[in-house]
Design a protein that fits this description.
The chain is mainly alpha-helical. It contains 24 helices and seven strands. Bound molecules: flavin-adenine dinucleotide (FAD), ligand DLZ and iron/sulfur cluster.
Length: 518
């Protein structure tokens, strides 16, 4: 049935656009315009997202709809089970357009190329003009990134980051970086000790709205990966702010120092667990950076922590987004190392004897979260060394993490982790043998494998795989100046050692190819 009073604009708000200052809302007027939000089957299943991720997003969407209504907006909210739900963005916009006969559709640009392509087809499909407006929630626009990147022979995050520091004035003093250095990573990278005081993220009890969503997800997505409960994520802006304040009080000071550490049973260490909220729009990146800067200026946290944290948001987060929009759609198909192996089944079950992989995957199943170094140097490293097809690795990361949207996940996976882009994002592959994992964690102590052994029964698989990876990919990687050392070490090994390492790696790869767990 059509609305007796047609609206002027139909404002479509997507699940990761839960910000009152969203550019589409800023252009609209609650008196004459209508907001549409929809839970759609296609978005929840185009990869089979973790149950907690779907629950978080639907609960946060429903709370945001309430917030908009309280602010005077008329909101059409289509729940997943609503009668007539077509299951797709286009279908729901078409139904809403038929109900309200808007003069135009207004929408903020999405975070995924796939959705943008879909939106571009809306005007002809709907017969209504569609304005796709810039997403102003980022600190560097896509066009600004393009301008920075074009004409540069070499694009590196560190250069971009310095430019962003100058532009925003964050941690700057008289045109110079605070403390006389741009980057304090040399003070970071310490392993953590099990007896260290360990903070934990702020947890929230699900309210009635969230409980309804949990029931829905249990009913409709029971066969997706992951534990649905206990569910403790923030689902409103106020709760996300509380989680942020809690992080700043309890963990930020240790963030830099223990950024790369891993410990058995410690899922969060000094990490913030804020990407989930930032990426859905519940927190604002600039506000977050300003608060972290203030904590340093007030003497609450040391400079290495504040700088390290701000670099992740102002630097990496913005940088990967710039790369995504510059390089898509071809970026998604890249496979510079010609890797074609399937993703081992234990990525979905955690049934592996490798303690490091078991820890990272188990907590992923439980929390839809693993911290950066687990994603990069454990699960990512193993997929890289064993030659898994990057697109399968990408589909896994996109599905299992609650903070995963393609603009941020794809460059991190294909570029930083799998080197599938041949070095566009990072200057060398992030890879290691067991030694690095042993140095940065206590995983090896409780492992069936022996990290000191490179070959033979019980040898840590990472060791032989590391050398085999270098050898297998020499045609692409050998000229890389950052890999001169490992290639020189490989060349200096006697032929028998090299042969034994290759044979051991071959056995592991064969075991994986046969679908047998390692
Ligand atoms: P913290 O360690 O507390 O870091 C602070 C914040 O910095 C994060 O909340 C995040 O917003 C930002 N940040 C840090 N590193 C990066 C980075 N490399 N790229 C972008 N932002 C960064 N991050 C996502 O937000 N979504 C993803 O889907 C995602 N997929 C990843 C896949 C792989 C293979 C790898 C190696 C990294 C991925 N990251 C992704 C980056 C990073 O691992 C997560 O941002 C971080 O683990 C989130 O946890 P946190 O909030 O506790 O982060
Ligand atoms: C990830 C996701 C899921 C699971 N469900 C929805 C949904 O039902 N409705 C919605 O608007 N968005 C959802 N999303 C997020 C989208 O898949 C997509 O990643 C972003 O909208 C891209 O900006
Ligand atoms: Fe991982 Fe190897 Fe250590 Fe086991 S021994 S935890 S497989 S690095």
């Amino acid at each position: 049935m059509s609305d007796p009073q047609p609206c002027r604009n139909l404002v479509v708000v997507l699940g990761d656009q839960l910000s009152p200052d969203l550019s589409s809302l800023k252009r609209a007027d609650p008196a004459s315009d209508r907001v549409l939000m929809a839970e759609v089957w296609r978005e929840a299943t185009y990869v089979r997202h973790h149950k907690k991720k779907i629950a978080f997003l639907f609960a946060a969407m429903r709370h945001f709809a309430e917030e908009l209504r309280a602010a005077g907006w008329m909101v059409d909210y289509v729940t997943l089970d609503a009668d007539g739900n077509t299951g797709s963005f286009q279908g729901e916009v078409a139904r809403a357009a038929a109900r309200h006969r808007p003069e135009r559709v207004l929408v903020t640009e999405p975070g995924e190329w796939r959705v943008l392509e879909d939106m571009r087809a809306w005007p002809s499909a709907l017969g209504v003009p569609v304005d796709i407006v810039t997403d102003t929630r980022f600190l560097c626009s896509v066009s600004e990134f393009r301008a920075w990147a074009s004409g540069r022979r070499q694009r590196r995050m560190e250069h971009f980051y310095r430019q962003m520091r100058r532009k925003t004035g964050l941690l700057m003093e008289g045109g110079k970086p605070a403390g006389g250095q741009w980057n304090f990573d040399a003070d970071n990278r310490r392993p953590a000790k099990a007896d260290l005081f360990m903070p934990s993220p702020r947890r929230f009890e699900p309210d009635r709205i969230t409980r309804e969503v949990l029931d829905l997800v249990a009913r409709r997505f029971g066969d997706h990966i992951g534990d649905l409960e206990p569910f403790w994520f923030a689902v409103t802006r106020d709760q996300a702010q509380e989680a942020l304040d809690h992080f700043m009080e309890t963990a930020l000071a240790g963030f830099g120092t223990y950024q790369d550490a891993m410990l058995r049973g410690e899922k969060f260490l000094f990490h913030s667990m804020l990407s989930v909220y930032l990426n859905a729009g519940l927190l604002d990146p600039m506000d977050l950076c300003r608060k972290v800067e203030a904590a340093y200026r007030n003497g609450q946290v040391p400079l290495n922590a504040a700088e390290g944290y701000i670099r992740q948001i102002l630097g990496w987060r913005e940088y990967v987004r710039g790369i995504y929009w510059m390089e898509m759609p071809d970026y998604g198909d890249s496979n510079a190392l010609n890797a074609f192996a399937p993703l081992p089944d234990f990525y979905w079950t955690a049934q592996t004897r490798m303690r490091c992989m078991r820890e990272a995957i188990t907590q992923t199943i439980e929390e839809a979260y693993a911290h950066h170094i687990q994603r990069l140097m454990i699960t990512g490293n193993f997929a890289l060394l064993t030659g898994v097809r990057p697109q399968e690795v990408h589909a896994w990361y996109l599905a299992v993490y609650a903070d995963a949207y393609e603009w941020v996940e794809l460059p991190n996976t294909l570029g930083m982790s799998q080197f599938a882009d041949g070095g566009l994002l990072g200057s060398k592959p992030y890879m290691s043998g067991g030694n690095y994992i042993n140095k940065m964690s206590d995983y090896c102590k409780g492992c069936d494998y022996d990290v000191r052994r490179r070959t033979g029964k019980g040898a840590c698989p990472f060791n032989a795989l590391y050398w085999d990876f270098l050898d297998r990919n020499a045609d692409v990687l050998k000229g890389n100046p950052r890999l001169n050392r490992p290639y020189a070490t490989w060349a200096a090994m006697d032929a028998d050692t090299r042969k034994a390492l290759k044979a051991h790696a071959g056995e592991v790869l064969e075991q994986l190819a046969g679908g047998r767990p390692v």
